[in-house]
Amino acid sequence: MDWLMGKSKAKPNGKKPAAEEKKMYLEPEYTKSRITDVGFKELVVLPREIDLNEWLASNTTTFFHHVNLQYSTISEFCTGEACQTMAVCNTQYYWYDERGKKVKCTAPQYVDFVMSSVQKLVTDEDVFPTKYGREFPSSFESLVKKICKYLFHVLAHIYWSHFKETLALELHGHLNTLYVHFILFAREFNLLDSKDTAVMDDLTEVLCSGGGRGGGGGEGAGGGGAGAQNHGKER
Ligand SMILES: [Zn+2]
């Protein structure tokens, strides 16, 4: 009788993710959830004594690891059957190989391309130098932007297609926290194109405007405390 009650869910192999019916990740009870009340807006600012490229490099590497980890929690659900394309909202992403050729791929394949190419970059001493005296390449900033764009696609895919599973694992506080930190960092250094992030503007607005902070979600390890936050202005 479920179909009569309007409760029927999208089939596991259905083309449209459940999120398309209703964006569950926008529900206030979930957007409130964080694992920390830290004010990321202050945290992302370049510290006075640190070189800009060093700051971009260490943060980008950290975001890469965190996005990878967050994705790994739902990767068993992100299969070629469940996620036949790398789609977010009405946008479909294609991978472009090293020669710029468009590659049609499933979401897990796309994420795999992202993760392995970013891994290659952040461990390349010529691109992300770690040794004293090594210079950053002139293309460094554009590479960081590229990495951020890819990491954004992965985060958007987790929200769009795997939020239910993230909720079931009680990891939405982690996901929200990572998203806020990442977006505020990218915004601070102009690393993401607004055209690319438009698909998630509604979520970004809620999570990053200061209205959706705190609230005592308490999900996840840290158990984000209650209370208003010093999270000042928007954009
Ligand atoms: Zn997926």
From TrEMBL:
Annotated GO CC locations: cytoplasm; nucleus
Composition bias, Gly residues: 214-227
Keyword entries, A-Z: Cytoplasm, Kinase, Metal-binding, Nucleus, Transferase, Zinc
Pfam families xref list: Mob1_phocein
Signal peptide (residue range): none
Location of the region described as Disordered in the Swiss-Prot/TrEMBL record: 214-235
Cellular localisation: Cytoplasm; Nucleus
Chain sites annotated for binding Zn(2+): 78, 83, 157, 162
InterPro entries the record matches: MOB_kinase_act_fam, MOB_kinase_act_sf
Molecular function in Gene Ontology: kinase activity; metal ion binding
Subunit structure: Binds STK38 and STK38L.
Membership in a protein family: Belongs to the MOB1/phocein family.
Role played: Stimulates the autophosphorylation and kinase activity of STK38 and STK38L.
Protein name, as recorded: MOB kinase activator 2
Lineage summary: Eukaryota, Metazoa, Chordata, Craniata, Vertebrata
